[in-house]
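Worked example 3 (structure in, sequence out).
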């Protein structure tokens, strides 16, 4: 049985990925700052300690690992972007990557693959509506998230003895939280809240396809370097919102545009992330042999709304 060490196991992606990996026959060890009580542990999952701030990692877990998946990082829109929280967003990703890289350099191990999450925040905003989609060769944006993603990806560049794959992930659609939960909240009142003009493009991915992509990256030795983890058919915010409304409410909802200035008051600087248009290509991962179960927003929402 191959063993996987996973960081960020309590996040949206980690909570789905850990049991998925178990189903696929892998042994899973989650690196955590505090071992949870037995009543709160996921069945079949092992736990080991790491502490980014104090540069500590359980080297025994690294020694036993066949693959490492690094997801850990503070949520980008979980809080308003104060200077302190922006530092936390950056350092939680970068310092974690550096700690793993050092462990791999200093510990005798059998790791074959290091899979690192990144984000399409690397690209920034589309130059214009209808602009060609971003590909993996595009330079990082000259803004906070672009710089953060650049440092995030660079944090593991020192790893040379194993195959490294970095997945720049789009908006993850899941029933367990994240963006979809926020889209659903106003629908409970019969309101389809279109953000800003609604014309901004959302590059998204179904949580199941993202989990499948991590497994594909483990199993396909030809995959190496950076790939965009987004579905082949990005959509506008308006299209996503109205299709979700129809799935949940049928005809019984009222579309309302939430002005950009309202979002800026409520969310602060981070509102830029829900207002910007970012069209990202999935062509490279598809050419690498990956097939999406949910390539369209209709297929994704149909599945998510009927679980």
């Amino acid at each position: 049985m191959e063993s996987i060490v996973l960081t960020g196991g309590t996040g949206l992606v980690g909570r789905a990925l850990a049991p998925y990996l178990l189903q696929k026959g892998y042994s899973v060890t989650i690196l955590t700052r505090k071992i949870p009580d037995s009543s709160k542990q996921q069945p079949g999952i092992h736990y080991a300690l790491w502490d980014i701030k104090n540069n500590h990692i359980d080297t025994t877990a690294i020694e036993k690992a066949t693959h490492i998946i690094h997801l850990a990082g503070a949520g980008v829109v979980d809080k308003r972007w104060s200077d302190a929280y922006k530092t936390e967003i950056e350092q939680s990703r970068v310092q974690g990557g550096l700690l793993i890289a050092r462990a791999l350099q200093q510990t005798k191990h059998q790791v074959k693959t290091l899979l690192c999450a990144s984000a399409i925040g690397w690209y920034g905003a589309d130059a214009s509506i209808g602009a060609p989609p971003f590909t993996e060769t595009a330079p990082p944006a000259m803004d906070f998230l672009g710089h953060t993603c650049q440092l995030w990806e660079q944090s593991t560049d020192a790893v040379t003895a194993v195959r490294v794959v970095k997945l720049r992930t789009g908006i993850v659609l899941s029933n367990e939280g994240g963006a979809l939960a926020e889209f659903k909240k106003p629908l409970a009142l019969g309101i389809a809240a279109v953000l800003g003009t609604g014309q901004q493009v959302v590059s998204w991915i179904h949580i199941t396809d993202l989990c499948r992509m991590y497994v594909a990256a483990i199993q396909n030795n030809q995959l190496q370097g950076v790939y965009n983890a987004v579905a082949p058919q990005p959509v506008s915010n308006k299209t996503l919102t109205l299709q979700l409304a129809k799935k949940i409410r049928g005809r019984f909802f009222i579309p309302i545009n939430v002005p950009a200035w309202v979002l800026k008051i409520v969310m602060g600087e981070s509102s830029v992330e829900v207002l910007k248009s970012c069209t990202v290509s999935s062509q490279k991962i598809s050419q690498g042999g990956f097939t999406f179960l949910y390539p369209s927003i209709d297929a994704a929402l149909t599945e998510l709304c009927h679980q």
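Notes: The chain has a mean pLDDT of 94. The first strand starts at residue 3 and ends at 7.
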